[in-house]
Specification:
The protein is an alpha/beta fold and 323 residues long. It has helices at residues 5-10, 27-35, 50-63, 83-92, 110-113, 127-136, 159-169, 183-191, 213-221, 244-254, 259-265, 268-277, 300-322, and strands spanning 16-18, 40-43, 68-74, 97-102, 119-124, 140-144, 150-151, 174-177, 196-199, 227-230, 238-241. The strands form two sheets. An eight-stranded parallel beta sheet has the order 1-9-8-6-5-4-3-2. It has a three-stranded antiparallel beta sheet with strand order 7-11-10, with helices on one face. Helix 2 (27-35) runs parallel beside helix 3, helix 3 (50-63) packs parallel to helix 4 and helix 8 crosses helix 13 (300-322). The longest helix is centred in the last third of the chain and has 23 residues, at 300-322. The chain binds flavin mononucleotide. Flavin mononucleotide binds at residues 19-22, 24, 43, 71, 73, 101, 123, 144, 147-150, 177-180, 198-201, 204, 285-288, 290.
Length: 323
Amino acid sequence: MFKTRVTEKLGIEFPIIGGTMMHLSTPEYVAAISEAGCLGLLASAMWKTKDEFRAAVKKTKSLTKKPFGVNLNLFPAMRPIDNSEYLDVIDEEGVKVIESSGHKAPEELVPRLKSNGKTWIHKCVGLRYAKKAVSLGADMITVVGFENGGATGVLDIGSFVLIPAVAGALKVPVIGGGGVSNGRGLVAAFALGAEAVIIGTRFLLVDECPIHPNLKKALIEAQETDTVLVMRTLGNTHRVWKNKVAETIMELEAKHATLQDIVAAASGQKDKTMFEKGDVQAGTISVGQGVGLIHDLKPVKEVVKDIMKEAKEVVSQLEKVSS
Ligand SMILES: Cc1cc2nc3c(=O)[nH]c(=O)nc-3n(C[C@H](O)[C@H](O)[C@H](O)COP(=O)(O)O)c2cc1C
C-alpha cells in the first residue's frame, strides 16, 4: 500500500519526505528520518564552507545506508550562498537526490541538478512555479499549502486546493504537504493527487529533533491557532509559532520599521539560541498549523509507524463507507 512513483524512484519504504529545516537538519536527525523509512533532507545552507558541508554528508552516510537528499536554498539569505559549491560536494560524495526550494527556479544550476543520475525535486507553493520547474526538467514537484511551517510565499493557497491543482496539471509525480501531521493528512494528500507527502512540523516533535525539550513542550501545547506570518513586508513570508519575538516582528512590520530593525529581531542566530538553550521567548521557530494536531513526542520511527497505521485504517474506513 502507498507504493508510488515517488517511493520507487527514491527507494524509500514510506511515501514521506522529511522537510528540510534550517539549523535543525543535522546528519543525526536526517539519518534518523531516513532510517525510519522516509527521505531525510540535509539543509546545505547550514554549512558555511564546502569542507563543513562535506563532513556533514560523510557523517550522514556513516549513519544510514538508506537514501537521503540535500536541499539547496534559493530563498533570500543573510549570507551569500553559492549553491555550485554544494553541488561539487554532492557530486563528489555521490548524493543522488536534490531538493531545491525558494523563490525562483534555479535555471543556471539545472544541468548540474540532473547530472550523474541525480533526481531533482523542486519545492514551491504555486502551479505557475511548478510548471516552470518542470519545463526546466524537474523530476518531481513538491507543493506545500499555506498551512505549512516555514516559507509560505505570496500566493496563500491552502493544501486542499493547491495539491489537486498541481497534481492535475503535471505529468511528473507530486509530493504534497502543508498541514500533514498524521495518517488522515497523508490519505487526504493522496486523495488530492499526491504520490507522497512532505512533513515538517510533525517531525519537530520527535525525540531526534535537535530542539530543546522546553521548546518541544511548548509546541505540544500549541493549538492550530498558534501560528502567525512574519517577514511578509520583506518579501520572505514565514509561518512561525506565535511567541513574543514573533509578535514583536509583527509590530515592527505594522509600523514600517526599518529593514535593519526587522532583520535584527528575526535573526537566525537568536533562533539557534532558542533551539539550543530552551528559552522559548528568545527567537522564532517555523511551525505550521498542523502543530495543533500533535499531542505526543516519540522517536521518529514510532511517529512514522503511527502515521502509516492510521493511514491504512482510514483507507479501510473509506472503503466501507464508499461500498
Ligand atoms: C522549523 C522548520 C524549519 C524549516 N526550514 C526550511 C528551510 O530551511 N528550507 C525549506 O525549504 N523549508 C524549510 N521548512 C519547511 C519544511 O521543509 C516543509 O516544507 C514544511 O514544514 C511542510 O509543512 P508542515 O510544516 O505543515 O509539515 C522548515 C520547516 C520548519 C517547521
